[in-house]
Q: What sequence folds into this?
């Protein structure tokens, strides 16, 4: 073997599983954490305060007028009704913006993923690393917001501690689908479609009032929204009013996560490796 061939073999990417992974998603995470701490920490911090301000204005201000609200036969304070919904919304927003606009710039302008895939990293490493970064952000939001809820007396059940892994699951589902969506986007105009989907979900996914206020067909449509499943999941855990639907809510996000990772991995491979 010539010297040139030996050098080429030494620097060639070493990937397993059909060239999809080197088992080193941690490197992607470490790079993302360093970039976040040096440049984007104020954006991360602002994402925490947004649901807190909503809770103060709606839960405390409007809640004093509305009073208690019925949830599966139990009467709870309006603030305790919307607080878990706002926590789910916070997880969605953090994960979506991390996995869409950040990914969009890395993909189309910074050419970061193209550079990563010139190393031993594979598409699965990049996908899992970026999605995990969104999970960490969702986990930080969950812990901070639960502390605020506890201080305000809006945590009604010891099961609320399980809201932390539940928020991470919600963030994982939205991050994986958000990254899959972004992998097909080429222009800023296409990215503007995102708020057209997120805003209706935020307003109508039983965030501020029970889903029972809608007609039957509208209820069925809302129950297809991913955010509705997240709102109901967190609300069950923080109020202690748990039903068998909790397994459906968790399963919904596990399916989202699986679909997103597969689509992103294949898309990155098609863009930069095939």
A:
């Amino acid at each position: 073997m010539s010297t040139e061939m030996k050098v080429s073999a030494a620097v060639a990417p070493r990937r397993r599983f059909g060239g999809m992974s080197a088992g080193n998603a941690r490197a992607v995470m470490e790079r993302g954490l360093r970039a976040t701490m040096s440049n984007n920490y104020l954006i991360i911090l602002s994402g925490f305060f947004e649901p807190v301000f909503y809770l103060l204005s709606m839960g405390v201000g409007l809640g004093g007028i509305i009073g208690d609200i019925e949830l599966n036969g139990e009467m709870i304070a309006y603030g305790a009704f919307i607080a878990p919904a706002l926590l789910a919304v916070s997880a969605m927003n953090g994960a979506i913006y991390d996995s869409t606009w950040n990914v969009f710039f890395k993909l189309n302008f910074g050419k970061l993923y193209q550079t990563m895939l010139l190393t031993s990293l594979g598409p699965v490493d990049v996908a899992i690393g970026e999605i995990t970064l969104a999970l960490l952000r969702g986990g930080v939001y969950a812990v901070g917001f639960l502390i605020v809820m506890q201080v305000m007396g809006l945590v009604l059940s010891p099961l609320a501690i399980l809201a932390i892994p539940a928020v991470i699951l919600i963030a994982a589902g939205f991050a994986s689908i958000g990254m899959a969506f972004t992998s097909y986007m080429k222009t800023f105009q296409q990215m503007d479609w995102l708020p057209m989907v997120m805003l209706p979900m935020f307003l109508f996914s039983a965030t501020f009032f029970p889903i029972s206020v809608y007609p039957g067909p509208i209820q069925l449509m809302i129950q297809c929204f991913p955010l509705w499943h997240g709102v109901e999941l967190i609300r069950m855990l923080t109020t202690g009013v748990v039903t068998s639907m909790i397994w459906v809510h968790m399963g919904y996000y596990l399916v989202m996560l699986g679909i997103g990772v597969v689509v992103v991995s294949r898309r990155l491979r098609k863009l930069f490796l095939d």
Remarks:
- Confidence is low (pLDDT under 50) at residues 1-12.
- Residues 16-272 form one domain.
